[in-house]
Write a structure and sequence with these properties.
Layout (H helix, E strand, L loop, with lengths): L7 E10 L16 E7 L13 E8 L6 E9 L11 E6 L10 E7 L6 H5 L4 H5 L2 E3 L19 E7 L6 H5 L3 E7 L2 E9 L12 E7 L2 E3 L2 E4 L2 E4 L9 E6 L18 E8 L2 E2 L10 E7 L5 E7 L2 E4 L2 E4 L2 E2 L4 E8 L4 E6 L5 E2 L4
Parallel strand pairs: 10-23
Antiparallel strand pairs: 1-2, 1-9, 2-5, 3-4, 3-6, 6-8, 7-12, 8-9, 10-16, 11-15, 11-18, 13-14, 17-22, 18-19, 20-21, 23-24, 24-25
Length: 352
């Protein structure tokens, strides 16, 4: 259930060649060898949260055996004056190289909140990076439904690679690619009414997201047997976040709307964590109170607990960053029903 259209592709090319005055290989490394890293970000949906304002590159050598910090630098972007979106960025990194296999972990952190910049600058070990957490209060509003003014959505990606070449020409023929994903998962709420119903939404309409949280591990990326970062397990301290229909919001409620899903009314961002406790006590839960112009209030509760994947129903045991859950609430004459769908043909269904 990845954000449909919200995954960015970063193409990273690491090129190495001997500095002037040096020739051939040393027995182990050439500390002065240079590397060029070219990054291209393709923005697919044009939504403003996904702009790129800063990029930090962190590189570890001997990454799969004894990770040692080799490179750590922050780059500040200058937006294209035409659309404000950064679409291409290049940087030259000073990287060591070996005659044999070059065991590198390359990490890209995009839009890091300034509150954690000092800690990132002070990194000395792989373990210290993996222990860092990301507080959602740094970049989200109090309702966790949008970004703070002046903040952009944090994103990250990581790749383990041995592609360090003696010449730029060789490296250009074999680029390293990183999938960069948003830090947050997203819960969207859509409303629609039965075709034979005739009413509008009233001011008391509200949606509450329960059992959400306010932080996650800064990184969690896996490539085969390699993993960087971790995931939180939360058993207490859950939070509630609420959206309420305002006077300026659209009161019309369609019968079909966007692809038969109705009309989007609110969005919540929620952090990555496990949710595998017995009895669904740590699962996300939505409470929806739909007030109508006819004076009725219809309510529903939806637990985000299971999904259909390839025709097989599975429990949700992890809320993963960059996932999207679309909760569709259908308001009838005497009842409210719901379904939850995700991108890429994955589906969660809840019957009330």
């Amino acid at each position: 259930m990845k954000f449909g259209g919200y995954i960015f592709l970063i193409t990273v090319v690491i090129l190495s060649y001997a500095c002037s005055g040096k020739s051939g290989w040393t027995d182990d490394e050439e500390p002065e060898a240079r590397g060029s890293m070219f990054i291209e970000i393709t923005e697919r949906n044009g939504i403003t949260e996904d702009r790129m304002e800063t990029v930090r590159f962190i590189v570890f050598k001997e990454a799969t055996t004894d990770p040692r910090l080799e490179y750590n630098a922050l780059y500040i972007m200058e937006a294209d004056p035409d659309d404000g979106i950064i679409s291409r960025f290049g940087a030259t990194l000073e990287l060591s190289r070996k005659k044999g296999f070059n065991d590198k972990l390359v990490i890209a952190l995009i839009n890091e909140p300034p509150e954690i910049t000092a800690r990132l600058e002070a990194l000395t070990t792989y373990e210290s990076l993996c222990a860092l957490e990301l507080n959602f209060g740094y970049f989200l509003d109090t309702a966790h439904s949008g970004l703070k003014n002046g903040r952009a959505m944090p994103m990250s990606g990581a790749v383990w690679t041995g592609k360090v070449y003696p010449t730029p020409e060789e490296a250009a023929l074999d680029p390293v690619k990183i999938n960069v994903v948003r830090a947050a998962a997203r819960v969207e709420v859509y409303l629609k009414k039965d075709p034979d119903m005739d009413f509008e939404l009233a001011a008391d309409t509200r949606v509450v997201l329960d059992r959400t949280y306010d932080r996650e591990m800064l990184l969690r990326h896996t490539d085969g047997s390699n993993t960087v970062g971790g995931i939180l397990t939360v058993s207490s301290g859950f939070l509630s976040r609420m959206w309420t229909l305002s006077g300026s919001d659209d009161k019309d409620l369609p019968a079909d709307g966007d692809n038969g899903h109705g009309r989007p009314v609110c969005t919540f961002f929620t952090p990555e964590r496990t949710c595998s406790a017995s009895g669904n006590t740590d699962k996300l839960m939505l409470t929806i109170d739909v007030a109508t112009s006819e004076g009725a209030v219809r309510s529903a509760q939806v637990t985000v607990d299971r999904f259909l994947l390839g025709g097989t129903e599975k429990n949700i045991e992890v809320i993963e960053r960059n996932n999207n859950y679309r909760v569709i609430i259908s308001v009838g004459a005497n009842a409210v029903s719901s379904e939850i769908i995700g991108w890429n043909d994955e589906e969660i269904i809840t019957e009330l």
